[in-house]
């Protein structure tokens, strides 16, 4: 190789290298220039939350969580967040340990409902965890259950001094319509907590089809082989086994030295004076020695439990806010099964989720003739318009330009008749609102008449109660347990439509409830100490008469300004 050839080769290599770098730089700049518009588009896209839907992210659920709970959390967000966990467990009401797939509603309800401003007391939370341990230890087919059941099967009587069963039970008998069932199960459960008993629920024909198991480690359903189950349908006011009749016939008294292994408690609306002694302290003392209490009721009797002196201190610790009893116990106990949850969530997403405001109107008519009735329709309009629940319409104009502040309102109506829905929908379809608000009227079903023993009817009824509880504003009908369940689960103080008399529209049409608690329709009016009649709605500040039923009792918070 010649000596002068090396520099030439080096020079060519350097030139080639320089040219390669220049080409790479040019390509890079070209790609950068081409990419700039894409970066700008992406920046603009992701700065707008509505674009997430196009990118495959569940925008609706995210926005729903933001508006309902003030928390940005997608459906499958991090469960490590203490905020989400607290919300998911409803402020501590619910326990860990349930299989989520078997009951989706238990931990998903917080995705559809605003976070409740009413927090359960730490004492109530501790009491629920303690009860779950008791239920695990004493529930169906446990050793303790089998031992106590054997005593019942043998029909043994026992002396009060030997009545020391480790586990005692209150058995709820399936009875009446679905709204009544929900309210009475909650009543029986609170009684079980107060008396350290285990609640067992007679499944009837539909309980297992409507509600998930509420307790983590054992069923709340009464086994089918329970020895007294064949008698449940025969238990009534005149049953010789009822506690009231045993007292009346001098078979049993508060001074009895021996007790039966079970007592039937008849707490249905037709109960007599001796049955009502259930709400007296001296009789509660006797009950505490009986292993099995069989309870049939169609009443939410919780207000009268607050009038029993031996329960008072415990109830005050459990519920510092007296008007939250069913709100907390209902959300703890009643979780729709997956089938019913599907009915609820599909309807909510299709018709209610995107509205700025959700309004529930629950119509229950007690007229003999089928509706719709003009006086009831007039009452619905009078209440909702006068109370500014719905906007007026302008019947003179065909179109009003919507103002910038206009909103969409989804109105969920529930009724056995479709007539009220049809009338209201026609009004807001044919005429514009004076506010420019857009009103959508929806009704999931119209079964025409109540079909208590039909499973499909009860599934729809339960779904509609739950949907009503997800609304922001609620209008209910007087005397209706359907409405009571919705307002209690939702933590809502509804406008109550007064019960019409003589086919005329009441004036005023409705009244604002002072409490979200259900009304006890058939309370006792008896002073247990003085053994005389008394107005039990005037004994203590937190138990008052109901707005919709003047003789009924309702729990209210003691800061209420209403007169006794």
TrEMBL record:
The keyword Cell wall biogenesis/degradation applies. Its EC number is 2.4.1.-. GO terms for molecular function: galactoside 2-alpha-L-fucosyltransferase activity. It comes from Lupinus luteus. The lineage of its organism: Eukaryota, Viridiplantae, Streptophyta, Embryophyta, Tracheophyta. One of its GO terms (cellular component) is Golgi cisterna membrane. The chain crosses the membrane at residues 25-46. It is a single-pass type II membrane protein. The keyword Transmembrane helix applies. This is Fucosyltransferase. It is found in: Golgi apparatus, Golgi stack membrane. Signal peptide: none annotated. It comes from the Eukaryota. It is an enzyme of class 2 (transferase). Keywords: Cell wall biogenesis/degradation, Glycoprotein, Glycosyltransferase, Golgi apparatus, Membrane, Transferase, Transmembrane, Transmembrane helix.
